[in-house]
Amino acid sequence: MIKNLKSSLILTVILILMFGVIYPLGIYTIGLVFPSNSVGSPIVKDEQIIGFENIGQSFTDDKYFWGRPSAVGYNAASTGGSNKGPTNPDYLAEVQARIDTFLVHNPWVKKEEIPSDLVTAPGSGIDPNISPNSAYIQVKRIAAVRNLPEAQIKALVDSSIENTVMGMPVINVLKLNLKLDELK
Amino acid sequence: MEYLYSAIIILVTILLAVPLGRYVSKVFKGEKTFLDFFEPIEKLIFKISGINPHAEMDWKQNLRSLLTINLVWFIWIMFVLLTQTWHPFWNPDNILSMEPTQAFNTAVSFVTNTNLQHYSGETGASYFSQLLALVFLQFVSAGTGIAALALLFKGLANRSTRNLGNFYFHLVRACTRILLPLSIVLAVVLLLNQTPMTFKGSETIVTLQGDTVSVARGPVAAMVAIKQLGTNGGGFFGPNSTHPFENPNGITNAAETSAIMLIPIAMVFALGYYLNRKKLAYVIMAVMTAGYLMLLIPTILQETGGNPMITQMGITQPQGSMEGKEARFGPVLSALWSISTTVTSNGSVNSMHDSFTALSGAFQMMGMQLNAFYGGVGVGFINMFIFMIIAVFISGLMVGRTPEFLGKKIEVREVKIAILVALLHPLLILGGTALASHTWMITENPGEVLKWLNNPGFHGFSEMLYEFTSSAANNGSGFEGLGDNTAFWNISTGIVMLLGRYIPIIGPIMIAGLLSQKKYIPESAGTLKLDSGMFGVMLFAVILIVGALLFIPALVLGPVSEYLTI
Questions:
Q1: How confident is the model at residue B88, as a pLDDT?
Q2: Measured CA distances, A91 to A101, B264, B457, B525 (Å)
Q3: Collapsing DSSP states into helix, strand and coil, what is residue A180?
Q4: Which strands form A170-172's sheet, in the order they lie side by side?
Q5: A128, A130, A125: which is closest to A76 by C-alpha?
Q6: Predicted local distance difference test score (pLDDT) of residue B413
Q7: Residue B208 · residue B92 · CB < 8 Å
């Protein structure tokens, strides 16, 4: 029994070193080959990190494309979804409020045209993407606020669709808005 | 397209599992493989530990070793989690120590391969804990399950001997020969696709719109790889693989989904190679796959149909139900993951199960309640073994012969153990849910006092049912709206996880030990052929009758009622 316990203790120490230290350090070392990926793919502007490619940011201003609602207010230090059930009355009221807000800011949009991803919160709370339709439906507002031709904004959206392999076609909201700011 | 993607993911996984199964069988038998360059390292490990990896051990000695070392791990992880405040390095975000009942729950959860997380990774665990306690346990708890299965295989192959092989030998080799190489491959795929692996702490940034936000990150890739492969499921961040750092795009999603099922499916083929009964492996595989598709297809249909309550508001939902789901995955790939993760006791998520439409929640729970369609690494097949013993026994009764299983007589003791193990699962789930519901009912103003439930009515009941189902199945996913970080939930689910893990390992190993000592009886004309479609149908029926029927009333009270009230 004592021998069994002693062996278990020593074996545990070795396995902790192997899988808790050496394995992660090994993966870390491989990661150094991809220096940007391994620190989270930051977007740098004027030597300042202004965001991460895959971490969504909150956009509420009319001059920017909006992302999806977030249950945690796009807090990337404490992420999560709403975990609201499909029939929860509080939740449904929240969705209704999002629909109303969207219609106020985009009065030319018909209710049934609103894509569901624009009024539902993702599981991560920091979804960087929206569906292409969710971007198209905002083009008119952006064009009006920025005094730019609609066709130009629409072309920008067209060129921003990412058709990733094995995933749904999406648009990265942060990247799209960065490009938007560069339009003259 | 996403339907095609789903089919590709399932098919590729099965195709990869066949050679992996052959390889696993070689590893179990100690035959030569192309990874033999690990051998000197393994020899050194055994030498330092004072273990003779070739010492013959019977089922009792093996179980004693398994339980002893699991206890040592439990004490280690408790120690690490309770001392986070003082971690000497790898704690750049200065995370504080866990509260004792939460530490207990987390320790049990990781030792039992459950990874039910009552903490949130980015705020509750230091990098030191994530790696030296949690990642370490994700390897060795999966290794324990695989080693237990190796002992079981040996017991089935044996003729009149007590020797089941050596637990330590299988534990170490399961980790070095199976889990480690696959994890490295998956981690590299993740790194290539922008999953971070850094020891830098969180980064504070000013967003485009001018908000100041802190972005948590860390050594993510290493952990995500093993949590997917070892049916662990405990992610680096609170929302698991919904988080774009854990699962950035379609490629990582496909790789991670495939990794959930790869080793569990490979174990079935491993049995075929190990016992040289490939046809039996195909029959079991067919039963498992039929069960898997039976749950998967309706879930996909439910999710693509959208939430009917939102349709009533005048929103058309060609995209399907999107609450709790990421735009890059959509409803089909989310449904695929949710069923894959619940049938295999993995428990990682790429969408929030609490927000799935009502009936999908029932299918997810059934996956865990049956717990044998592919199942956890090692233990999944062990659960299936229990159902097989019961199916053989019932078939034997029907034709009036002493039941035989792979040339061994099945007698009273084996059947008793099998039935007790099979009935433990519903007892833990239904008993636990009853206790929680009772506590809720006798508390005055429970919404204010207990604050458990994030949703009212039937869905609230489902949250409690799901939590105990997930704990007993060692799954670890949750209807995460449940406010589960309280002493009640931490302790009750902790106990359920312990019983739900060790009794279904102890029982089958005992049976294997008993069968191992029996004389081999050659097959005759009257023997029930296990590798026949007939037995497959019988097995499927037993799983549904013994496994599923007990849960139907509880499911009716929760998700089915919710569905009917729409």
A1: 87
A2: 15, 37, 13, 63
A3: helix
A4: A129-130, A170-172, A161-162
A5: A125
A6: 93
A7: no
Amino acid residing at B104:
F
Q: Which stretches of B280-334 are assigned E, i.e. beta strand?
A: none
Compute CA B103 distance to the chain's CA centroid, rounded to the nearest angstrom.
Answer: 21
CA distance B550 to chain A (A): 25
Contact assignment for A39 to B198 by CB distance below 8 Å: yes
**DSSP β-bridge partners for residue B204:** B214
DSSP helix, strand, coil percent of chain A (3-state; round to 5): 50, 10, 40
The answer to whether A51 and A43 are in contact (CB under 8 A) is yes
Q: Give me Rg for the CA atoms of chain B.
A: 23
Q: State how far the Cα of A7 lies from the Cα of B299, in Å rounded to an integer.
A: 47
Chain A residues touching B198 at Cβ < 8 A: 28, 31, 38-40
Q: CA dihedral in degrees (A10, B502, B281, B168; nearest 10)?
A: 10
Q: Return left, alpha or beta for B563; rule: phi > 0 is left, psi -120 to 50 is alpha, else beta.
A: alpha
Residues of A within 8 A of B328 (CB-CB) are: 127, 129, 164, 167-168, 170
B238 CA: distance to closest CA in chain A (Å): 6
- Where residue B558 falls (left for φ over 0; alpha for ψ -120 to 50; beta otherwise) is alpha
pLDDT, tens only, A31-60: 999 999 999 999 998 888 999 999 999 999
User: Who among B192, B243, B317 is closest to A124 (CB)?
Assistant: B243
Chain A residues with CB-CB distance to B2 below 8 A: 168
Express each pLDDT in B278-300 by its tens digit: 999 999 999 999 999 999 999 99
d(CA B566, CA B563): 6
Mean pLDDT, rounded, for B477-505: 93
Please, which residues have CB within 8 angstroms of residue B1's CB and are 6 or more apart in sequence?
none
Q: How many CB pairs under 8 A join A and B?
A: 357
Domain extents in chain A:
2-35, 57-182
Gap between the Cα atoms of B465 and B348, Å rounded: 18
How far apart are alpha carbons B382 and B399 in whole angstroms?
26
Q: What angle do CA A32, A29, A19 make, to 5 degrees?
A: 145
- CB–CB contact B322 A116 (8 Å): yes
Mode of pairing for the β-strands spanning A170-172 and B212-215: unpaired
Beta carbons of A15 and B136 less than 8 Å apart: yes
Kindly report the pTM of this predicted structure: 0.95
Closest Cα to residue B260, out of B463, B477, B426, B1? Answer: B477
ipTM of the complex: 0.95
| Closest Cα in chain B, distance from residue A119 (Å) | 8
